[in-house]
Amino acid sequence: MSLWGGRFTGETDEHFAAFNASFRFDRRLIFADLRACVVHAAALGRAGVLQPTEVEAIVEGLKKIEEMVVEPGFLDRPEFAATEDVHSFIEARLVELIGQTGYKLHTARSRNDQVAVATRLFLRDEIEQIDATMRDAQRALVELAERYADDPIPGYTHLQKAQPILFAHFLLAYFQMLARDRERMAQVKKRVNVLPLGSGALAGTNFPVDREWMAAELGFDGVTRNSLDAVSDRDYVIEFVNAAAMTMMHLSRLAEDLIIYSTQEFGFIKLGDAISTGSSLMPQKKNPDSLELIRGKAARVFGHLTALLTLVKGLPLAYNKDLQEDKEALFDTINTLTASLRVTATVLGNIELDRERARQAAIADYTNATDLADYLVRKGLEFRKAHEVIGRIVLSAIEQGKQLHELTLTECRQFSPLFEQDLFDAIRLENSLAGKNQAGGTSPDQVKKELAKAKADMGIQD
Ligand code: ARG
Known about the structure:
The mean pLDDT is 97. It is built from 19 helices and six strands. By secondary structure, it is mainly alpha-helical. The chain starts with 13 loop residues before the first helix and ends with a helix. Arginine is lined by residues 22, 26, 85, 87, 111-112, 115, 319, 321, 323-324.
């Protein structure tokens, strides 16, 4: 029996029926929907709308459906092929199991508040799992940072060598990004975790269902305050995809950095076989496909975000069927984000730093020029002037094909009488690093502190 029989005399066109159907994908909501159904039935009983025996029959039926659908392949049975959506599927099975009483479950409810409650419940639980996966990725960053706690690499701006940093400092930058991403997700979860059930199709319901009670039963933090809003907005889905897009953006940047560092030209890191691929043609190749795919999949999630914003922007209140299109974007975002986080953690566990090469690269190409300028500042010169002096020294060094430490004191003094023998100390890599000793800087002391804090956050023992 279709959900809207009475008013219709004609049959639904078969192409339109297929077009309209969402069971193929919204079956993923079935456990969340069943849970909400159980609580809705109980609320109808508490309101005196259903007899206790009816509630019992319905709840038992729902539990049976839950047992049936865990059986692998059950939902793919050919007899369910024409099912419209997960909601009509549940009602049809319920009536098969318990008879006409099954039709009473839809009292005081519309599929509009039903789909909203199922989606919110589902998403709330998914966010909890995603948080654990984000944490695993953070943990992998911390473990790698710990393995190479004292090793320098060059830091870049404009992808030009800038100043030496610790590899651990670089990794902990991404740790911070993921920490904010987790915070963002936790905030999204708070707004997802609100009960829309009891909003009916758009106006509320004539039956005195206790919404606060249903919210408490389902672990929601509260109830929606406006029925039109509750059935028609999808900001909680969009917000989630936005937070996911932000994380994908961060993972993509990390991927890009690691791809660059693993090239022959940079050669700072080696990627393990487990996360690399070869070429079908060139026998010597080892490609960072894992990282390239993470970078690529970010685009996919950004696309979902744009699709969802566009989906909702022109919709009049309240529910419109356009909203059914939210689901594939949401589900694919969850899948893509989860997989990308997992692969990121795996890649981080399969990285080796070429310590010596990274160190040489950190020293070369005048990455200590700023330290030499700061040296002159400490000797009393204005920074702008010191910058100018060192700029001219660098130019001269480039012309001679020398690094700064290869210049003599006499040569340096031609540019400024403030130079003394201790200039060579000031530009040593160790001192350059140790000097950046304010909170958040790359000095070994600061990085050690941040690493210890990160480890404590991750519950890693010393
Ligand atoms: N499958 C629908 C969706 O995902 C459920 C709600 C249908 N409501 C309606 N009035 N047709 O949006």
